[in-house]
Amino acid sequence: MDEDAGPAATEPRWLDADERRAWLKLAAVFTLLPAALDSQLQREADLTHTGYLVLAMLSESAERRLRMSDVAARTNSSPPRVSHVVRKLEDRGWVRREADPADGRGQFAVLTDAGWDKIVATAPGHVEAVRRLVFDVLEREDVAALEELGGKLLTRLDPDSRFTASAG
To answer: Which of 51, 114, 138, 145 is most buried, judged by most C-beta within 10 A?
Structure first.
């Protein structure tokens, strides 16, 4: 073996025709679905999808408050992204931050009454968009298969279940 040639190159594991078609459809869903949901939320509620998720997760939590790290986990977002979104929601009066008395470095995000009113007003339109874009075209068996497939992919993508969707 020629020492200058380096290790023998291995052949890539190319996708077969079925895998390629499935991958291209999944990649299109990754692009089109978030854009469609963001568009609906921007148009009807002047909110991003991530902003909506932050408000929704706070609305479902005890006392409408969560540690910022828990907000990140429940919205499947990075801590810096959540901090940025919460800052924008604070500017609109929908969320406030409070220091964690047990941990001087930690913070809570707290849903304000105005934030509660915003999520209550926004949720019906958003759920209708999710239903129209995703669930109305699926049969009951498809929903079960989608959950199973999502679980398998999340096991690979988030093996430590850092994000709440992975743990469910």
So the answer is: 51
Question: Alpha helix (H) ranges present in the chain?
Answer: 17-45, 49-59, 68-74, 79-91, 113-133, 140-157, 164-167
Cα–chain center distance at 154: 12
Q: Name the DSSP letter for residue 160.
A: T
Measured CA to CA in angstroms, residue 93 lies from 15, 112, 118, 123, 167 at distances of 49, 7, 10, 18, 31
Say if CB 130 and CB 122 are below 8 A apart.
Answer: no
Residue 105 sits at φ, ψ, to 5 deg, of -90, -20
Per-residue pLDDT of the chain (168 residues; tens, 9 = 90+): 455 555 567 899 999 999 999 999 999 999 999 999 999 999 999 999 999 999 999 999 999 999 999 999 999 999 999 999 999 999 999 999 999 888 878 899 999 999 999 999 999 999 999 999 999 999 999 999 999 999 999 899 988 888 765 555
Q: How many Å apart are CA 38 and CA 42, to the nearest integer?
A: 6
User: Residue 67's beta-bridge partner residues?
Assistant: 108
